[in-house]
Amino acid sequence: MSDFPTDPPTPRRSSGRRNSDALLRRVVELAHLGWWQTHITSTTDLSQNTTIWSDETYRIFGHEPRSFTPTTENFFAQIPPDEHATIGEAVARAFGGDGDYHIEHRVLRPDGTVRIVEERAVLERDASGQPVRFVGTVLDVTDRRRIEAALKGTDAGARLLAQIVESSQDAIVSAALDGVITTWNPAAERAFGWKASEMIGRPASTFTPTDREFELQECFELIVQGKPKGTYESVRLRRDGSLVDVAISASPIFDADGTTVLGVAAILRDITQQKRIAAQVRHAQRLESVGRLAGGVAHDFNNLLMAITGYAELIRMDLPTDAPQQEDVRALLASAERGARLTRQLLAFGRRQVLNPVPLDVNTVLRDIEGVLRPLTGADVTMRLTLSREPASVRADRAQLEQVVVNLVANARDAMPHGGVLDIETSVTDVGAQQQGAGQPGRYVRLVVKDTGIGMDAETQSRLFEPFFTTKPRGTSTGMGLATTYGIVKQSGGFVTVESTEGAGTTMRIYLPAVDAATRSEPETEVENSETGQTVLVVEDDPAVRSSTRAMLERLRYVVLDAETPTDALALARLHNGPIDVLLTDIMLPEMPGTRLADLVAQLRPEIRVVRMSGFPGTVDLLPDSAARHSFLQKPFSADTLARAIGAALAK
Fold first, then answer.
1. What does the pLDDT read at residue 92?
2. Is 512 exposed, middle or buried (0-12, 13-18, 19+ CB in 10 A)?
3. N or C: less crowded end of the chain, CB within 10 Å?
4. What count of other Cβ atoms lies within 10 Å of the Cβ of residue 199?
């Protein structure tokens, strides 16, 4: 179970993503903030819905983590009956249009103790407006409420009050009605950096940003009337001038008779980590949404490219090999391949790309994306590319390697706000066991990205690859670029070193295990046309793709049957009198997935071979157990690639 809301896990997740998730879980634990989510099946019978609690939520309710599966029934079993209606009304308001709620209620723990918790929840809806799930947080505020009650007590509780104030983990500050600070506890010293001796006697505006001083006025206007100021979120200043996010609740301080207001007592809780976690959750959800959008765009765009590629291939096959139009067709096919590469980059951005480590030459990758890198650096940065004379061959995922280079170049550009020189170099080198940061000794391809920028101090370098760490202005960076880079390199069996001096630039070195250049890619083989007239059943719902694929197969001398839907395909498989040797099916089809169709066709024709095709690489992992039985063909594909895929299937 995750410590923050997430969709069900995908079959594969990068190590960088897993490390980021682990860090988020650890931060949530340190903040003692529980998360929960309820997937909504019914809005009237809540017992039908599925609920997940984080480990911290179990602890807040007095249970060992994951000791039982949470349900609506066992949740309400721990809520005093007189508070059931309040919670039910809050949920009803959320369903009715509010979309969220913020309430406090008591929890009856199994050991007999009673705790007060603060709950915040947001209702998520799908595109049609139907409720999909609740995502919420739960925080134990018992101690905070006890402190507030003690601050309102009489002199009889003064000793207890003093002990509570001194030992509180929340900052407690009191002030007279003229705004002069009278109490500043140790937690306030830790949170804001000033000692009590420095703050007592100074105005409360000392640690209040100028643009938030209106809050003080509003608070005191309520306090002089004997009214508390409810909990609200704001920011306050630290001694070093930085800002800290806080949740503030303020109450009036009365005299012994309880009639005259003497001042105000405020409890301030540092919620910087909590807000950061919430922001990262929202960011992760946005990335997931972008990933889903990228998948849909990739599928449709690759189908379009498939039609273009297919018809271009047909023209190429019809033309004499020495025809001048062959050059035009090659240019058209090259443009289609660039479009396919852009789609892969979009999928990599959304983390929907299937991991596909293959032997490749780092020099070739750099030359291919040089046109993207130069505009990225800006006109005031001179980029110099120095590539090794020998092949710089590694085994890696091309999209991930491109992402590493783009991340490093973008980081170097940001380090040169007034321009400079950016050097990108490759070499092949032997790495010994004693080299700093090295993995296994051996031969490595070294990728160097060197800038003449502002450099970094030692403390920044020590945290450089931490997720969410950034030195850039607040709100301008997620702090994930170099963390992602580090994860990709480590996942590929490599390591990273950094050298930097303030004012003298930074050198980042990426080491990836070298592979034999001779195994870098499979040799192109001449495609021989089928002479035996094997039959291929093509199932594709896009008419242009179906037509071009059929035409290519017929030029390759296959007998072709085609179908638009799984229903049509099953009818052909059942009624066709002759053999059907290969099923070539798109994975994303109306009525059912292509993988399910393949299983049904195999029941009718057990000897049939299957080749799956898709414009969305993520669909390869929908049924990973079928990978051994089915070949996969990525759209767009050439006639040669199609012929090899069909030939390989027939050879199984």
1. 87
2. buried
3. C
4. 22
Query: Which of 46, 40, 44, 34 is closest to 1 using CA atoms?
Result: 34
> How far, CA to CA in Å, does 345 sit from each of 9, 351, 352, 374, 518?
22, 10, 10, 17, 27
Contact 319, 325 (CB under 8 A): yes
Query: Is-cis flag, bond preceding 636, omega within 30?
Result: yes
Q: At what angle do helices 272-318 and 639-651 cross, to 10 degrees?
A: 90
Residue of 10, 233, 44, 254 whose CA lies nearest to 120: 233
H/E stretch holding 149: helix 142-151
To the nearest 10 degrees (0 to 180), the angle between helices 15-30 and 481-491 is: 130
Q: Are 331 and 572 in contact (CB under 8 A)?
A: no
pLDDT, position 497: 85
Query: Cα angle at 591 between 565 and 626, to 5 degrees?
Result: 90
Q: Global pTM?
A: 0.40
What are 444's two structure tokens?
């490595």
**Closest to 382 (Cα-Cα) out of 455, 447, 452, 481:** 452
CA-nearest of 311, 371, 362 to 338 is 371
DSSP-assigned letter for residue 228 = P
pLDDT at residue 189, as a whole number: 94
Q: Chunked in runs of 10, what are the mean pLDDT values of the chain (652 residues)?
A: 38 46 53 82 78 91 92 90 90 84 92 90 87 88 62 54 76 87 91 92 91 91 89 92 92 80 89 76 58 63 79 84 85 79 55 63 91 83 92 86 86 88 92 60 90 83 58 45 68 82 88 74 43 84 89 90 94 93 91 91 93 66 44 81 88 78
Per the listing, tokens 């349900």 go with 71
Q: How far is CA 7 from CA 2, 38, 43, 196, 564, in A?
A: 10, 11, 20, 47, 32
